[in-house]
Every structure is written in structure tokens, then in C-alpha cells.
Amino acid sequence: MAINGKIKQLYDAIKSDGGDVGTEEEFNDWFLRPGEEGYNNRKRVYDTFKSDGADVGANYEEFRDWLGLRPADAGAAASTAAPSAPMQQPSASVEAEVDEDWQPTSDQKAVMSNIVQSSLAGFNRRQDEAMERLGNTADYYNRGGGVLNGRKPIAGDVRYNPYKGEVEQTYIYHSERHCYGR
Known about the structure:
Elements: H1 5-16, H2 24-31, H3 35-51, H4 60-67, H5 106-142, E1 154-161, E2 166-173, E3 177-180
Antiparallel strand pairs: 1-2, 2-3
Helix pairs in contact: 1-5
């Protein structure tokens, strides 16, 4: 099944924040499961984004509509096939379907934009942290640190310590970090 663009945005946002969501296809299958299990999966994603401050709609129904999903019929019963029957297809009335002709409203575009911006900000923050660790590692070894000195801390730059409110000597450890004091 081809992954919906909006579901891919959610997948990318969760994946970029370090979430273990498997492959796109696995996430898509999990997210679009039919029945109550699928509803609980989608509601969990909605609640997670909402608790993180993402603008994903005022309620779950707006989120569902943004995704282009239709609610299951209220009176539809789940499949009553015997468990021993091979590969039963779920009832069409409880299966989430994606409307291919759907176009986002300006509010929905704003939600998507916020999700993308949030993901990009997280990516940039992690990239900056990684680059600082790389620079610290290079400083440590360029200043004589390493296995030969017993991995002891070595003097680093003089930096402003925001905790004390003053400028002081830093020390670089083999664990890729600058520390104030020894």
C-alpha cells in the first residue's frame, strides 16, 4: 500500500525525533489498522504530537479529517469470521480509507508547516550537538589527549560559564565534552 503524504510527514517527524517506528510501510500498516486497534494507534500519535505542543488540530476529529480519513460507521460490526479461517479481509465499514481527492485547508497547511518546522528544528539542534562533539573530539586529540596520556582531561578554551556568570578555563574529556573546572 502506498503511504499517504500526510502519514509520511508524521512518520518523518517521529523518526527525526528518534522514534523507533520501523519502515515507512510498517508505520503505515500500523497507523491504518482497521477497527479499534487502528483508532488507538492514531489517537496515540495525535496525543503524542499534541502533548509536545504541535498544532495538530483542536481535537482528534480535526486531526483525522486533516489526514483524509473517514470515521468507521457507528453501527458497523466487526468481522465475525471464525479464527481458523485463512486470511480474512476486514470489513470495509471499519477500514480506514484515504480520500485521494482531498485538498488541505489553510489551517491544515499551517499544521503541516508547524510539524515540518518542528522536525527541522529538532534535526538542526541534533546536528549542531553532533558537530560540537566532533569539534571537541578533534580539540582533545589535537591538544595531546588520547590513549598515551591515560585519557586524562586536558585544558580547553576559556569560555563564559553561564552557571557561575563568569569566564573560566574549560577542560576537554575523552568523552567529547567540555567541562568547567576539573
